[in-house]
Write a structure and sequence with these properties.
Number of strands: 12
Order of helices and strands: HHHHHHEHEHEHEHEEEHHEEHHHEEHEHH
Shape: flat
Oligomer: single chain
Radius of gyration: 31 Å
Helix content: 40-55%
Strand order of the largest sheet: 3-2-1-4-5
């Protein structure tokens, strides 16, 4: 729409408008039209997604469900259209739409990575597939076969991911050409604000147009002038500036300690004008944490997590731990029986060794192991302290006199660790994670950074376990644990488990 057309619209709506307010009214009309355009596009995307799910359902029914029933496509088309079937499919479409909305598919993705968007799409298709089975079973429709579920998940995932992968470069191209832009205003002129402005200018595909900076005169303003950016308003004139200019988002980069009231005023203006407000997590130097919105009793909070924890991946990890621990205990039950007999008849004392260890968030639990030492090994520890060969607070000696002959074999083959599968099943441990340490070793920690290893469930195996175990120093051990926390993924767990098998067969680092 041309400016003359906008003026005509404004004149019809506001016949008594004064010339001084004409600019602000025009800008307001532009903002409202942009919002309406975005709503239209998002609604069109919702309809498109529902059509894709319908197509996936039809293809699944045609290629799998109908073929399983021994009928052809003609018979499928001739199925009687009943009220219950229409209601079921309509209800299913509504549930899929709600699921996609809850999974965040209709939020702005211009700042998210391709990988993050694909992960969201896969979550949505997985939940939608599970809901298909539930609703089909509720309406007694024969669509609950495993291959029907798998085929629907594959088709819906393929359609959703492919459409978004096509849409992302298309939208990036439009933004580079000046379409679908968002005008952003930065409050603050410190180094973090300047770095943020340069980042958005270097990435035109994000579709951000920098309006300018807002700040009062201060000691660092001389350095800011050399950047080439402009200050469009001070804090006192910010309300008037927002009334007369197009601003979609405001990024606040004011120092919290000295400019708390100014930050609160800017946030209140964002609320009053309905403008998106952004602030950096580096306000509290939270570079290595992941913030997440939260709420308690109606009060909004921002919770930060030590690692980039994806709740979906952690749910999968816990389910794999449970299933794998049960499966391994059943498969290895003969090994359990033989090891128990060897321990029982080779030396006096109990079959199992139970010791208090430090678990997740420093919760104490009893770890289970096959006993490899003499019964009074814990009492003998004080007498052997001067022979400790390990660095740091842990205790290790190569030829520990407390270890029995069978115990040496069990340790070399790591069979003594098998009862920890019960700890995994209980939830005290995981298959992969930092090794649980005795309370004695924990008390000897000298750095709090090393205690970050206790922010996750301890595991039977980890990077330390497959990197030499007793052959590496304590400091290197702690670095490997922190590396695991920083790089954690389900794929990393799979790789560690695969390397554990090789390490056990070689007996490397076992003591």
């Amino acid at each position: 729409m041309k400016r003359a057309d906008i003026c005509e619209v404004i004149s019809s709506r506001y016949p008594a408008v004064t010339k001084s307010h004409l600019k602000s009214l025009i800008l307001n009309e532009i903002v409202q039209m942009n919002k309406a355009k975005r709503r239209f596009l998002f609604n069109a995307l919702k309809v498109f997604d529902v059509c894709q799910m319908t197509l996936a359902f039809a293809l699944t029914t045609r290629l799998v469900a109908q073929r399983s029933a021994g009928t052809g496509f003609e018979q499928f088309l001739s199925i009687r259209v009943s009220l219950s079937n229409c209601f079921m499919f309509g209800f299913l479409l509504l549930i899929w739409h709600i699921t996609f909305s809850l999974c965040g598919l209709y939020e702005s993705k211009r700042l998210s990575t391709r990988r993050a968007e694909i992960a969201q799409l896969l979550k949505a298709s997985t939940v939608s597939s599970a809901l298909l089975v539930f609703i089909a079973d509720l309406f007694r429709v024969p669509l609950t076969a495993p291959r029907v579920l798998v085929s629907f998940w594959l088709m819906s995932s393929f359609l959703l991911v492919t459409s978004r992968l096509i849409l992302r470069p298309l939208m990036a191209s439009l933004r580079r050409r000046g379409r679908d832009l968002r005008h952003i205003l930065i409050v603050g002129t410190n180094s973090r604000a300047i770095a943020f402005a340069r980042n958005i200018q270097m990435r035109p595909e994000l579709g951000y147009r920098l309006v300018g900076f807002v700040d009062d005169d201060w000691a660092g303003m001389a350095d800011f002038a050399e950047t080439g950016f402009s200050v469009v308003s001070d804090h006192a004139r910010l309300p008037e500036f927002l009334r007369r200019n197009v601003v979609d988002e405001i990024a606040i980069y004011l120092p919290l300690r000295t400019a708390y009231e100014l930050s609160c005023a800017a946030i209140e203006l964002c609320r009053q004008h309905g403008i998106i407000m952004r602030f950096s997590g580096e306000i509290f130097d939270l570079k290595k944490t992941r913030p997440s919105p939260d709420g308690f009793d109606g009060v909004h909070h921002v919770a930060t997590y030590p690692e980039d924890r994806d709740w979906w991946a952690f749910v999968v990890k816990r389910n794999v731990d449970t299933l794998a621990s049960v499966t391994l205990m059943l498969l290895l039950s003969p090994v359990f029986l033989i090891a128990a007999c060897l321990v029982k008849f080779s030396s006096e004392g109990p079959i199992l060794f139970l010791q208090e260890r430090m678990g997740m968030n420093k919760r104490k639990f009893l770890i289970w192991k096959f006993r490899t030492m003499v019964p009074n090994a814990e009492k003998m520890l004080a007498e052997l302290e001067d022979q400790n060969e390990a660095s740091g607070p842990v205790f290790k000696i190569m030829n520990d006199p407390r270890i029995t002959r069978i115990g040496k074999i069990l340790r070399r083959t790591s069979i003594d660790e098998l009862p920890q599968l019960f700890n995994v099943l209980k939830g005290d441990m995981s298959l992969v994670g930092p090794r649980p340490l005795p309370v004695r070793d924990y008390e000897g920690f000298s750095e709090d950074l090393q205690r970050r290893r206790f922010s996750v469930r301890p595991g039977i195996t980890c990077l330390w376990q497959v990197s030499g175990r007793s052959l590496i120093s304590f400091d290197q051990w702690m670095k490997l644990d922190l590396q695991y926390l920083d790089e954690w993924s389900l794929w990393l767990d799979v790789r560690i488990l695969a390397r554990t098998v090789s390490a056990v067969l070689k007996g490397s680092g076992a003591a």
